[in-house]
């Protein structure tokens, strides 16, 4: 399969009063044509910052992408000039945000907000764009499309607004759709509908998707390939079935163990002890060592690299580098 | 298809009923505010009086008539005549045209200037912000009235033709008024540009111009309407002050300000009160009415700004 996007050694830092924070630290992965890549991890592990870095939303002086490359169809997004970047955003890469309520401009009619990328990127005339916008609204499963096009965001519910966001995102048939926790702000029944819709569009248009989530249920349902992030680093990645059946990294195992299993009563759900380390105080150890059940001396002193562990799976853990552990 | 169109036709009246735009909502709320409505009524009355009234007056030619000097109000001259025998009522109406026009035009100009410069400063920040806001600060550190006096004195010094002075007064007033507006707009922009929907706009690949004027400015339109309304009153007052001191619009072109100039000497002030009471009352009523209306507007459009 053809590669759509290849990220190589991406690092993003933020500058705070207390010092430099490495939100994303030297990560590499690829998204292939028609593939859904899920990035999972708990809050603050750098999932969203990865997406923001790709879209160029990390702005100085607050922070910056400090290294690496984002190769999108042969062009490095980090080195493109403003105009070429603008032509790619919204046209070939689209993004859906977590909060549909605040991602639409409150004073502009829904229809006009859908028309905008059509007019800008597809050079459509106003009338044609309007017609296409109404089509898109009914395509994302909203009835009374004409009427909805003339209403303002505050008149719609969260689920409907997320559908509108999807309509805007798919309006220019992008090659890559980045969805940053698209269902987190929605209730469970709507979540399933939204995910179904995303999958349907993905399958019918053949676009690739990068889905960011902390919900393993969503991963199981949507992903082809899973990337587990922890503290700005990739700790494990692999095909979805492989990874769910045979998680290698203790963190991934912990995550999977802390999911409730249907039909099984448990007194207390498993939880990984401890907390995410403060990104300001990251030492040269494995970032997970103080929460890990298998912590070894080497874990406290050196950071493990991402290594092939069989079955196309990769993990960053000293457990799988026996030779070096005994040194 | 036929069934489809029938359905939409059936739904149409219902859709009309549901329609509640921000504009309509605000209008309804405004209608409940009696004070604001009466303020608006007075403003409309003044406009109608000044712009249509003169057509019904037989004295619009402003002929000097020595036989009719300083006559008290009577049946032929309802508000009396001035020192040159001209009808006061007609002159008040004609002066109103100028005063209201100056007020409106300078408001439009300062809102345009203020909104544009404030938006640019708040959106781009950095150097553009520094330059624009420091100029604004500079203008704001000098009290407005002395600045206007200096401008006015310069105009007299350069012997600007009186016909042009009206336009230059408009310009002067907007130069004094835009910094306050720009600050307000900039503040709003600084907070709006960080909102999530602006990130969404970046991600859509929109141009700066589109983001600025298509997405950001519509968000501050209510604020601008309120500021603009309150601004008209201030502009009318400043124009009157300038003209009163003979530094604004020059006679024989009448404005409310230079008509009150008649109150400048003791004899006219005491013996011919019809010379200065009508224009004085006009200024008073208009400015108060505009401010009351503007306050009402603010309560409706910008609830956060309540005093």
From TrEMBL, chain A:
Matching PANTHER family: DIPEPTIDE TRANSPORT ATP-BINDING PROTEIN DPPD, OLIGOPEPTIDE TRANSPORT ATP-BINDING PROTEIN APPD
Residues in ABC transporter domain copies: 5-256
Organism this protein belongs to: Paenibacillus auburnensis
Record's protein name: Dipeptide transport ATP-binding protein DppD
Location of this chain's protein in the cell: Cell membrane
Its membrane topology: Peripheral membrane protein
Principal location class: membrane
Keyword field: ATP-binding, Cell membrane, Membrane, Nucleotide-binding, Transport
From TrEMBL, chain B:
Membrane topology designation: Multi-pass membrane protein
Keyword Zinc among record annotations: no
Keywords: Cell membrane, Membrane, Transmembrane, Transmembrane helix, Transport
Pfam families registered for this protein in UniProt: BPD_transp_1, OppC_N
InterPro entries (alphabetical): BP-dependent_transpt_permease (IPR050366), MetI-like (IPR000515), MetI-like_sf (IPR035906), Oligopeptide_permease_AppC (IPR053523), OppC_N (IPR025966)
Compartment annotation: Cell membrane
Transmembrane residue ranges: 35-56, 98-123, 135-155, 167-185, 216-237, 274-297
Top-level taxon of origin: Bacteria
Domain ABC transmembrane type-1, chain residue ranges per copy: 96-294
UniProt record similarity statement: Belongs to the binding-protein-dependent transport system permease family.
Protein name: Glutathione transport system permease protein GsiD
């Amino acid at each position: 399969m053809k590669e759509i996007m290849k990220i190589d050694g991406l690092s993003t830092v933020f500058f705070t009063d207390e010092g430099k924070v490495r939100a994303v630290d030297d990560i590499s992965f690829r998204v292939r044509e028609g593939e859904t890549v899920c990035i999972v991890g708990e809050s603050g592990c750098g999932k969203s910052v990865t997406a923001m870095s790709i879209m160029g939303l990390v702005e100085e002086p607050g922070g910056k992408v400090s290294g690496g490359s984002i190769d999108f169809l042969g062009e490095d997004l980090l080195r493109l000039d403003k105009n070429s970047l603008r032509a790619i955003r919204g046209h070939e890469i689209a993004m859906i945000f977590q909060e549909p309520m605040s991602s639409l401009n409150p004073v502009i009619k829904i229809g006009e907000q859908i028309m905008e990328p059509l007019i800008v990127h597809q050079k459509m005339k106003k009338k044609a764009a309007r017609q296409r916008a109404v089509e898109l609204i009914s395509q994302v499963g909203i009835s009374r499309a004409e009427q909805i096009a003339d209403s303002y965001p505050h008149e719609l519910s969260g689920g409907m607004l997320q559908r509108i966001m999807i309509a805007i995102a798919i309006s220019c048939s992008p090659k890559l759709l980045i969805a940053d926790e698209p269902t987190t702000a929605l209730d469970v029944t709507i979540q399933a509908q939204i995910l179904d819709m995303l999958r349907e569009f993905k399958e019918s248009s053949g676009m690739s998707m990068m889905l960011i989530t902390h919900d393993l249920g969503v991963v199981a349902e949507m992903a082809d390939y899973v990337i587990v992030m922890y503290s700005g680093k990739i700790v494990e990645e692999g095909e979805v079935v492989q990874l769910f059946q045979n998680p290698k990294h203790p963190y991934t195992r912990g995550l999977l163990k802390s999911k409730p299993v249907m039909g099984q009563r448990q007194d207390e759900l498993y939880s990984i002890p401890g907390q995410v380390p403060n990104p300001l105080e990251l030492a040269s150890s494995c970032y997970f060592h103080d929460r890990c059940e298998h912590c070894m001396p080497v874990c406290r002193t050196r950071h493990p690299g991402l290594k092939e562990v069989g079955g196309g799976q990769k993990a960053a853990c000293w457990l799988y580098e026996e030779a070096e552990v005994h040194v | 298809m036929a069934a489809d169109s029938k359905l939409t036709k059936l739904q149409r009246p219902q859709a009309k009923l549901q329609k509640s735009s921000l504009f309509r909502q605000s209008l309804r709320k405004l209608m409940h505010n009696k004070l604001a409505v009466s303020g608006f009524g007075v403003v409309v009355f003044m406009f109608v009086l000044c712009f249509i009234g003169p057509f019904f007056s037989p004295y619009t030619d402003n002929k000097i008539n020595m036989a009719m000097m300083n006559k008290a109000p009577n049946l032929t001259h309802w508000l009396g005549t001035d020192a040159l025998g001209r009808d006061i009522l007609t002159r008040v109406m004609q002066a109103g045209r100028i005063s209201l026009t100056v007020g409106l035009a300078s408001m439009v100009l300062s809102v345009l200037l203020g909104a544009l410069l404030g938006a640019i400063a708040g959106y781009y920040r950095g150097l553009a912000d520094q330059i624009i806001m420091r100029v604004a600060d500079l203008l704001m550190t000098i009290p407005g009235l002395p600045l206007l006096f200096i401008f006015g004195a310069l105009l007299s010094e350069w012997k600007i033709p009186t016909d042009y002075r009206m336009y230059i007064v408009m310009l002067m007033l907007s130069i004094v008024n835009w910094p306050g507006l720009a600050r307000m707009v900039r503040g709003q922009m600084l907070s709006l540009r960080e909102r999530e929907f602006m990130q969404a706009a970046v991600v859509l690949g929109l141009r700066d111009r589109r983001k600025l004027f298509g997405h950001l400015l519509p968000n501050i339109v209510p604020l601008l309407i309120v500021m603009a309304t309150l601004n008209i009153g201030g502009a009318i007052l400043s124009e009157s002050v300038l003209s009163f001191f003979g530094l604004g619009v020059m006679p024989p072109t009448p404005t409310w300000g230079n008509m009150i100039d008649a109150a400048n000497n003791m004899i006219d002030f005491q013996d011919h009160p019809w010379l200065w009471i009508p224009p004085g009352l006009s200024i008073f009523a208009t400015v108060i009415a505009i401010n009351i209306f503007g306050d009402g507007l603010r309560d409706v459009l910008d609830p956060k700004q309540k005093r």
